[in-house]
């Protein structure tokens, strides 16, 4: 074997034989270098700029702590902070309060139409929350809202409005129902994967169904519940579109809208804005620290190797009442708002009321052919989301691999860097990208690259966490086997690890793609007319008050996304039906037995 | 094929030392079993041999090629060493044939040769009929054979087996033992076989290395290990064993309680030092108390009381209390039936006893 080093024992007793690798691992070094460079470009640099800017004065450019002082001293800056916290806590409470029971009903009971509820809930996940807010403006604006109009028919013309979406309660409602899909998905998959034996063991010890649920099932999904609480909290804290649509008109400021104000006022106070988002980062960082404290040493192994489906709990007479209760969620988040959007999008002029003469496909024609902007935005949305999701999932997976297999010193630091964006509100990241890449040497302003990079950076934590979760399930022996047969590290990764991640990578790609295509706040300061995407186009059109166009474009965006998801789901399931049955995977160490 | 030489191999993980300087020689073409309880360092040794870990100190040579030292490690893929894993590590996304042919494809061999070597490897482990199956459609034993074929197809210089049978059921395990030995006889590849099962080691190995807490205890042939264990730990680990702990009364004598017993002495102890008397249960003979049941060979004789007796068909497994909180196990003919509490005389044939360094 010529490749093995040829040092002979004894020939040079002192000059030690060095069994080093026969060649410098160029590819490996290059890949690691690229990963580190990408993380610096996508996370460290934009975030570094935000941090750096926060200590500078907007007018003089000198170093200062004044921005921070102002954040906590000026009353009109403290109020948005308080409002944001209220919104975040309330959003998280709603997301858990609805999402967890809903997940349990769908995963564990014999409630009718469980699949339908699941699909509709996922449809809410695909919906950008600011579009949901638009739908609800149509439904529940104090004067013109259809539900209020209906109310006046019942209660009399001089009755006050039943609902007012332009309020803190309205914003909480919208943020809450569009965050439920997060908690629902996380908790229901935890329930789906939980070993039935754990519940059966309690049953054999004489524990009743309810007792088992309370003392075994619910505690076992605690990590998923806590994780979704934090994620929902962050959503409530960082959403921009909903408060901009619902709270700004009534003069209730939150942090994200205040940040936008700093940018859009004249002169802009960019450095002030940088300091002003720091309290948000602090709060989210603290939540993650608390989660670590709470979960601590408890090792929850909820995945077992068994395929048996969980036992269904029979609801008996409560089946239908439960179904109607569960239906409220899709009713509020999907059916009602989309009905409103669809109806408005099909009228030539909404103000003229519903009549056959007024019905028209004009705005769809207008959106697709009547102006060049929408078509450009559709193409951009698809292109940027595809490229952004691909970059994001590729980088996230490679980082997860390096961390999971401890392939280089300081690997954990890479993982930490890849996780940082989760605590940065999109609007702040947007600001960071703006600061970092609108100057030499990397002036990307106006290029698609800027948006693709910002999208990839925003959702890198999801890709990284997802990649890590899949890799944890793939026993390192499967890779070592390839190494011992002569495959190098790169070859092993590509021909063993990646195919084994297979379907997981596809679903991970969609997990990133969907939030990107509906993302607004990251894009809002980075777009130019040429790089406009659907969400920013809709947002700006709404600002212009053209509701018919807004609705038509919203329906198009939703159809587009749903179509892609519908195509993708079978694709993800197709990969490896025969070959990765649970049994083999278990034997091979793909999942812990 | 190559012989293996391991020189003063040390491996530390932080403050924990897994291997305390191991020296091992595996002559070309032999099958060495690395035997020991969990945590003895046998798996660490295997990981070092395979090149997945770097030694803290010491060297590993394959013939005259330095594979590992504290200064550098030849990566696993360059070693020509195949490894069969405890959990098989058969890739679930590849068919049997694809699994086995993987290493051949890596070597960029001509198609015809790949096909030929694939067939030969599958034939060796009798898997020709299952070549297009996915691992999910195979039993545990079949997956194990895929792993073996995959390791053999590349014609490695050295084959490493990491507890290859521990995930199989008892019946299959017995069958696969002989199969592994048969394959070794056929191909003659230098093999290191890690196991904690002594009977696996005895059946398959030419040489057995017994390890404990990172130290090599003994390296000998299976017969030598069983008949002349170098200390009480080895005696206890290979086969059933009785150990009476006492102190040395000079060469060839041991004081146990208030008695002095004699036996061939292979301990290194001075008079008064701690030693153990080891004797296999199959060598212990029992006679009824009072009656002369002299077996006709020189014996150490102790009085005892039966504690329990279990009938195992071919023999009885009897536990005898010999006083001073000490017990002895004896395998006696089924015809010798004693109830608990029966007083007996215990005969320990001197030539079957050994005075050794104690286990602990």
For this entry, give a set of tags:
heterodimer; A: 593 residues; mainly alpha; MetI-like fold; 26 helices; 69% helix; disordered N terminus; B: 360 residues; alpha+beta; Rossmann fold; OB fold (Dihydrolipoamide Acetyltransferase, E2P); 2 domains; six-stranded mixed sheet; five-stranded antiparallel sheet; 8 helices; 21 strands; 35% strand; elongated
Cα(first) to Cα(last) distance of chain B is 39 Å
How much strand content do the residues of chain B show? Answer: 35-45%
CATH architectural arrangement of the largest domain in chain A = Orthogonal Bundle
Q: Which range best describes the helical content of chain A: under 10%, 10-25%, 25-40%, 40-55%, 55-70% or over 70%? A: 55-70%
Number of helices of chain B: 8
Q: Output mean pLDDT of chain B.
A: 90
Quickly count the helices of chain A: 26
How would a textbook summarize the main sheet of chain A?
none
The CATH topology of the largest domain in chain A: MetI-like fold
Domains counted in the coordinates of chain B: how many?
2
Query: What percentage of amino acids of chain A are in beta strands?
Result: under 5%
- Could you name the CATH homologous superfamily of the largest domain in chain B? P-loop containing nucleotide triphosphate hydrolases
Radius of gyration from the alpha-carbon trace of chain B, in angstroms: 24 Å
Structure description:
The complex is a heterodimer of chains A (593) and B (360). With 593 residues, chain A is mainly alpha-helical. Chain A has helices at residues 26-54, 66-73, 75-108, 114-126, 129-140, 146-155, 168-193, 196-204, 209-220, 222-238, 241-246, 255-264, 270-276, 278-295, 319-345, 362-370, 372-404, 411-419, 426-437, 448-458, 460-472, 476-484, 489-517, 534-543, 547-574, 582-587. Chain A has two domains: 80-307 and 317-345, Orthogonal Bundle (MetI-like fold), CATH 1.10.3720; 352-593, Orthogonal Bundle (MetI-like fold), CATH 1.10.3720. Chain B folds into two domains: 4-232, Rossmann fold (3-Layer(aba) Sandwich), CATH 3.40.50; 240-356, OB fold (Dihydrolipoamide Acetyltransferase, E2P). Chain B has helices at residues 42-50, 96-106, 111-124, 140-153, 170-187, 198-204, 222-227, 232-237, and strands at 4-13, 16-26, 31-35, 57-62, 65-69, 72-73, 81-84, 158-162, 190-195, 207-212, 215-220, 242-248, 253-256, 259-262, 274-279, 285-288, 299-311, 316-321, 327-332, 343-349, 354-356. In chain B, the strands form four sheets. Chain B has a six-stranded mixed β-sheet with strand order 7-8-9-3-10-11, with helices on both faces. In chain B, strands 2-1-4-5-6 form a five-stranded antiparallel β-sheet, with helices on one face. Chain B has a five-stranded antiparallel β-sheet with strand order 14-13-12-15-21. In chain B, helix 2 (96-106) crosses helix 3 (111-124). The longest helix of chain B has 18 residues, at 170-187. Chain B is elongated. The mean pLDDT of chain B is 90. Classes of the chains: A mainly alpha (593), B alpha+beta (360). At the A-B interface, helix 22, helix 23 and helix 26 of A face strand 5, strand 6, strand 7, helix 2 and helix 4 of B.
